[in-house]
Amino acid sequence: MIKPRTPPGVMELLPRDQIAFQRMLDTIRRNFERFGFLPVETPVMELTEVLLTKSGGETERQVYFVESTGSREKSAQDGRAVPELALRFDLTVPLARYVAEHEAELAFPFRRYQMQRVYRGERQQRGRYREFYQCDIDVIGKDSLSVRYDAELPACIHAVFSELDIGAFTIQLNNRKLLRGFFEAQGVADGELQALVLREVDKLDKRGADYVRETLTGEGFGLSAQAVATILAFVETRSTSHADALAKLAALGEGNDSLRQGVAELREVLELIRALGVPETNYALNFSIARGLDYYTGTVYETTLDDYPQLGSICSGGRYEDLASHYTKSKLPGVGISIGLTRLFWQLQEARLVSTADSSVQVLVTQMDDAQLPQCLALASELRAGGLNTEVVMEPSKLGKQFKYADRAGIRFVVVLGENEIAKGTATVKDLRREDQFEVARGELARTLRVELEQSRVMK
């Protein structure tokens, strides 16, 4: 006998937890579509040369290659023979390939959402997954894309997390141009060094000021203590309201070109976020946010739960200037944001912010005698036609056993159709949530149960 077990780094849920996860997916999809984003799916496999063109190195060590009898190609890094196909490790590279390949067929600005699994050879640890869902939205322009689109994404994310109802949250914003301008003024003008400094600054909320200070003054950076003190004071800037955010931007003064551009873009994004109806308690400036990926060039975002900062960012993204430069000569700037839903769901379960859902089955029709099965099946068909998810007990058993099954399976309503009910044209309903019982005319059963479900939904 082989012991049944899942491989490490995957999330496998019991049905009622899977329902809770699926409902989160449905909520995210619904809000993405409300904001005018169109669905896209790409294959789980991409050609290796396409997938690794922009990355290689560390990324290649985390990629799952697809073993097959097909041909192999040599790695650009070390000449090794690698499989022709690999599993996607994010949704951004497939998006770049997709837009470049279908450029002539798409309408720009192209607004897409994508909700699919991705695969990474992550080191095994709690909450880190090798297979996980990402939920992305992006707006891609051709040749140019107004910064105004940068405000739409936070508005969409606000709608998503408001409906998910997982607690107070803040969408934190910054701008890479603003950061670059500030660092240039501090003498950190070299592009490579600036990228490394930004990467360390991005760790401020996770690792703390002492870690960042020690790193930037240490070997490899060698910045002066005064320069690092100025940098830390700057990146610790946070706003407390819309007016405070505008005041903090104004206090930066004129500065150099990069700083001025970053300030102007952030100011416009903030004003449009407010115009889109996002409450000012749900967005703020945070000058420490840089995002680790080097291709971000303007606005950057991170979303955190106010009462659970230890969870870190639950949604992040930003502006990039050229999505698909490796696949097309066209310039395709864009802005995108992503929710890593599998890790988020695990974090919310750990924090007890989501609970096991009720069953998607709303009604169980019992059966006490084979002779009544045709009537029970007919009643189930009536309930399904009336919009209710209905299961029928197909083999007769003691009523207590059937009630116990419904309770364990999370089914709210149990309908009993015995000889007496059939004779009277009624049905007896047991509401396991409210622990009460009532009799209703068979013709009114579906409507009555729909009303009960709607009242419960409104009370939530």
From TrEMBL:
Where does the Aminoacyl-transfer RNA synthetases class-II family profile domain start and stop, copy by copy?
Answer: 22-374
Query: Record's InterPro entries?
Result: aa-tRNA-synth_II, aa-tRNA-synth_II/BPL/LPL, Anticodon-bd, Anticodon-bd_dom_sf, His-tRNA-ligase, HisRS-like_core, HisRS/HisZ, HisRS_anticodon
- Asked if the record carries the keyword Transmembrane, the reply is no
Binding annotation for L-histidine: 90-92, 120, 134, 138, 291, 295-296
- Keyword Protein biosynthesis set for record: yes
Xref: Pfam families: HGTP_anticodon, tRNA-synt_His
Key words of the record: Aminoacyl-tRNA synthetase, ATP-binding, Cytoplasm, Ligase, Nucleotide-binding, Protein biosynthesis
**Catalyses which reaction(s):** tRNA(His) + L-histidine + ATP = L-histidyl-tRNA(His) + AMP + diphosphate + H(+)
Listed GO MF terms: ATP binding; histidine-tRNA ligase activity
Question: What EC number(s) does this enzyme carry?
Answer: 6.1.1.21
Q: Which GO terms describe its cellular component?
A: cytoplasm
Please state where this protein is localized. Cytoplasm
**GO biological process assignments:** histidyl-tRNA aminoacylation
Membrane spanning residue stretches: none
How far does the signal peptide extend, from start to end residue?
Answer: none
Q: What family is reported?
A: Belongs to the class-II aminoacyl-tRNA synthetase family.
Question: What is annotated about its quaternary structure and interactions?
Answer: Homodimer.
Question: What is the protein's given name?
Answer: Histidine--tRNA ligase
What is the species of this protein? Lysobacter enzymogenes
